[in-house]
Write a structure and sequence with these properties.
The complex is a heterotrimer of chains A (95), B (234) and C (125).
Chain A lengths: L2 H22 L3 H21 L3 H25 L8 E4 L2 E4 L1
Antiparallel strand pairs in A: 1-2
Helix pairs in contact in A: 1-2, 2-3
Chain B lengths: L1 H20 L14 H11 L6 H9 L1 H21 L16 H23 L8 H18 L7 H24 L23 H25 L7
Helix pairs in contact in B: 2-3, 3-4, 4-8, 5-6, 6-8, 7-8
Chain C lengths: L6 H25 L3 H22 L24 H32 L13
Helix pairs in contact in C: 1-2, 2-3
Classes of the chains: A mainly alpha (95), B mainly alpha (234), C mainly alpha (125).
């Protein structure tokens, strides 16, 4: 068990956790940030797997451009997945 | 009920995926005898004198595929423009400039980001990187300026010209091979010595053209999406 | 930098992460009702498939497929460049598809004022 293997396993757990968080989170803005975390860890994995070209592409497209396109869409549509529950402060209000 | 059906479906997919990939050993040397990996690596090193073999596959061995891919990107940019088309904007946009710190930082970083993008796609045949990566980095630079200034304008005419010229360069370099009596995208220029900047024949030229084309297309996509604003009801 | 001797553990890690990402994304795309959530799920599936393809091409002790001046004379074992070229294409096309899909979502929102697919009933624009 060298340090690289341990850090890869930790990053894999983080990645799956971010994926589950992105699916269950009702606030879409947080979900999009979680997908960009998935892409960031994926780009580190590509570098470890000796694919620097793919790592560069994933870092530029997956982390920056995909996130910004999702954020623009959320700005123009609605932020919460379930429109009946709107969060104001710490309270969740049912419409 | 629906979730149960979905979970059963996912279990079937998971079973087959695990079943298939448990038979492919990770990191095992599967390349015995004559195989495609050694063929590409050998050709890239000895026949094309290109040190980054991913570049030689993307641009030379599968160059026709890349031409199709660039066309798909162009179609995506065009489709985006036509889907988001609005006859006229009613009312005024509710957007503000970013703070002074963001604007000064964006001004400071804009030129180095463009320079980095150009470096990445010019050295695409020597080091990791290439047209797609460099073009994306250039689009990120324009994104920074678009976020810092709400009235930053990118000329659609210039973007169209850059994109068309780059696409024309790619297609005409491919057709020159046909005119010389060889195949489409034949490497007809002298290949030089490996690990020089001027090596690999037409490969660096094509990747530079791809870099300009991808940069222009992605900038156009981002500009169209960012111009889709929430308008006040007037 | 080369991966250590625990190849069995790494097999489970890389393949397992990729398959888990594919399944989580598929679940989101099938169960969720918000169009933006469905697209987030599809982009997670994309990430998983890319990781799966690149980890198939990995070779133990192999270097990146670049003949830089430091390694060109040593003739080292290299990883498979073909899946890498494939994934390079797939990432760029994936971004283009996502952008067009999100533009369609914005267009749908302009007409229906909702992105929930249960509330969008008529097929007319």
């Amino acid at each position: 068990m060298d340090i690289l293997t341990i850090s890869i396993i930790i990053m894999a757990i983080l990645q799956i956790g971010a994926a589950i968080y992105a699916v269950i989170q009702k606030d879409l803005l947080y979900a999009v940030i979680a997908t960009s975390v998935i892409s960031l860890i994926l780009s580190i994995f590509f570098y470890v797997l000796q694919a620097p070209d793919v790592a560069l592409t994933e870092a530029a497209i997956g982390v920056a451009l995909t996130t910004i396109v999702f954020v623009i869409t959320i700005r123009n549509t609605e932020r919460h997945e379930d429109k009946r529950h709107v969060k104001i402060g710490n309270k969740i209000i049912k419409k | 009920m629906k979730k149960v059906i979905v979970l059963i479906l996912l279990a079937v997919v998971a079973y087959y995926l695990v079943d298939v990939f448990s038979q492919i050993k990770f990191g095992e040397n599967r390349f015995q005898g004559e195989n495609v990996r050694d063929f590409y690596l050998d050709k890239s090193k000895n026949d094309l004198h290109v040190s980054n073999s991913v570049t030689s596959i993307v641009v030379n061995f599968r160059g026709f595929d890349t031409l199709g891919e660039v066309t798909v990107l162009f179609l995506a940019a065009t489709a985006l423009g036509s889907v988001l088309y609005r006859r006229k904007a009613h009312g005024e946009a509710v957007l503000f400039n970013a703070s002074t710190i963001v604007r000064s930082g964006a001004h400071l970083l804009f030129a180095p980001i463009l320079l980095l993008g150009a470096y990445v796609f010019i050295h695409g045949h020597l080091s990791p990187g290439g047209g797609f990566q460099g073009g994306t980095i250039i689009a990120t630079g324009f994104l920074l300026m678009l976020l810092a200034y709400h009235d930053y304008k990118v000329s659609h005419g210039v973007l169209t010209w850059v994109e068309s010229l780059a696409g024309l360069t790619f297609a005409s370099l491919g057709l020159t091979g046909l005119i010389l009596g060889k195949t489409f995208l034949e490497n007809f220029l002298p290949i030089g010595t490996i690990n020089d900047l001027f090596s690999g024949g037409i490969i660096p030229i094509i990747y530079i053209a791809v870099g300009f084309k991808v940069g222009a297309e992605l900038t156009g996509v981002l500009y169209t999406m960012l111009n889709e604003k929430e308008y006040k009801k007037s | 930098m080369s991966l250590g001797s625990n190849l069995d553990l790494l097999t489970v890690t890389f393949y397992g992460t990729a398959i888990a990402l594919i399944l989580i994304g598929l679940y989101a795309a099938l169960v969720k009702r918000s169009l933006i959530k469905i697209l987030i799920g599809l982009s997670i599936v994309d990430s998983g498939i890319n990781l799966l393809l690149v980890s198939i091409g990995y070779l133990k002790g192999g270097t990146a497929p670049i003949f830089s001046p430091a390694v060109i004379d040593k003739n080292p074992a290299m990883v498979d460049p073909v899946p890498q070229a494939l994934v390079l294409t797939a990432i760029v096309i994936g971004f283009a598809v996502t952008a067009v899909a999100l533009a369609l979502v914005i267009r749908l929102y302009r007409h229906h004022k909702t992105v929930n697919i249960d509330e969008i009933k008529n097929l007319k624009w």
